[in-house]
Design goal:
alpha/beta; Alpha-D-Glucose-1,6-Bisphosphate, Chain A, domain 3; about 450 residues; TATA-Binding Protein; six-stranded mixed beta sheet; binds magnesium ion; five-stranded mixed beta sheet; 15 helices
């Protein structure tokens, strides 16, 4: 069977592994598994027209009608799918990957990322000769306007607009030349926030900086916030604007796990309790912040679809990942970069400057190690570590997590690369470093002995 889906849809370098033949066959396979009307949207990459046309052609060839929503954030497509009678959504994006990449992401009819079951069915179909419909049964494609505006309106409807307007805030916004170029400026305008926008042109080669919102890539945003004394916040998205990362009013980059902890505590307080969902790899700072606010935390395997589905099952009010993927149950069960802006503005108004909120968190030190490991040995490394940690407090939600009195270690295989990862965390920097080195060495010993 062809393995198409990674942790986040199907991705590759355009005209190499991601080409029009693949996109055409994917379109047919999606249409065969999820027949009906399919909504399609893209980020701002150069190659989106080519990939979208091929996917659309495949969908129509098996009898699906296609609605083209334009270049909008992934969560705007997901909101459209959730609120309209369509059988699926397809997003043409490679998220934060470099501009030569593109990808195809499938959305279920409820607006969440395609379930593992649907992905498996699409992969199975992909390898078959998919029957085409008679000429008079082929689908049509029509452009639909307004999905981006509807998405912004839906966010606004959840927020305390009067309070935000009354505060007269200034922020600096970095659209990364990606899919948020229209929605995030519009959202801030409607909230009465003065936004100084950089990299606001939709330009799929990402001329401003690479489309992953890391500290290295957001130096211009951080400088612009420092140079703007009245700015209370810097905001950045990735290429398809499902993720949102923040810079405090002094221009300091705020790591995603700290944002997650701060917003979790704020939402739990507002909600007077509740459940927060996050993967095993996120910092323990979240347990401290959520516990103090009166809520509880559930841990899942790594990957935002896992977090979203756990939130649905357990009634989680908020969840997310350390990379800026934040999921708000009262809006929709997917990462939502626009909603994150709204909730962060409310959080600053309710709880004070972001810098002070970050300073009030328990400090933790995280050390991450990457070990080259052939795919065939990944399982062996896990077994070896398990065998050599008998009697310890362990968790197998994703890989192997070992709990110590003064910290934890997580050892897990990468799902997409020949890499084994070891994370260690402690309040004591030396302990985190020692734990990471110890388990990195153990993994290396196992790999070299094979
Ligand atoms: Mg993304």
């Amino acid at each position: 069977m062809t393995k198409l889906f990674g942790t986040n849809g199907v991705r590759g370098v355009v005209n190499q592994d991601m080409n029009s033949q693949l996109a055409l066959q994917m379109g047919k396979a999606i249409g065969a598994v999820m027949p009906g009307t399919v909504a399609i949207a893209t980020d701002t990459r150069y190659t989106c027209d080519m990939i979208r046309s091929a996917v659309s052609s495949g969908l129509m060839a098996v009898g699906c009608d296609v609605l083209y929503l334009g270049s909008i954030p992934t969560p705007a497509l997901q909101y459209y799918v959730k609120t309209h009678q369509v059988s699926a959504g397809v997003m043409i994006t490679a998220s934060h990957n470099p501009p030569e990449f593109n990808g195809i992401k499938v959305i279920d009819s409820d607006g969440t990322e395609a379930s593992a079951d649907h992905e498996k069915q699409i992969e199975d179909k992909y390898d078959e000769t998919i029957p085409l419909v008679a000429w008079e049964k082929t689908g049509s494609c029509r452009e639909v306007a307004g999905a981006a505006d509807d998405y912004v309106e839906a966010i606004i409807s959840k927020l305390d607009v009067e309070a935000i307007r009354a505060a007269g805030l200034t922020v600096v916004l970095d659209c990364t030349n990606g899919a948020s170029y229209y929605t995030s400026p519009l959202l801030l305008k409607k909230l009465g926030v003065r936004a100084i926008t950089i990299n606001g042109n939709p330009q799929g080669e990402f001329p401003g900086h690479p489309s992953e919102p890391t500290e290295d890539n957001l130096q211009d945003l951080m400088k612009m916030v420092r140079d703007t004394p009245e700015a209370v916040l810097g905001i950045a998205h990735d290429g398809d604007a499902d993720r949102c990362v923040f810079v405090d009013g002094e221009g300091n980059y705020v790591p995603g796990d700290k944002t997650l902890a701060i917003l979790s505590a704020s939402i739990i307080r507002q909600n007077k309790g509740g459940v927060i969902v996050t993967p095993v790899a996120t910092s323990s700072v979240i347990e401290d912040a959520v516990g103090e606010a009166g809520g509880s935390v559930i841990r899942t395997a790594v990957g935002s679809p896992k977090v979203a589905r756990k939130m649905m099952d357990e009634g989680g009010v908020f969840g997310g990942e350390e990379n800026g993927g934040l999921i708000f149950a009262d809006h929709q069960f997917c990462r939502d970069g626009g909603m994150a802006i709204g909730r962060m503005l409310e959080c600053i108004l309710a709880n004070g400057p972001l810098k002070d909120q970050v300073a009030a968190l328990t400090p933790y030190y995280t050390v991450k190690k990457k070990i080259v490991c052939p795919d065939r040995l990944k399982e062996e490394v896990l077994k070896f570590l398990d065998k050599n940690t008998e009697g310890m407090e362990k968790d197998f939600t994703d890989g192997l997590k070992i709990q110590f009195d003064n910290g934890w270690v997580l050892a897990r295989a990468s799902g997409t690369e020949p890499i084994f990862r070891v994370y260690a965390e402690s309040k004591d920097k030396a302990v985190a470093e020692e734990l990471a080195s110890k388990y990195e060495s153990m993994a290396k010993v196992c790999i070299s002995s094979m």
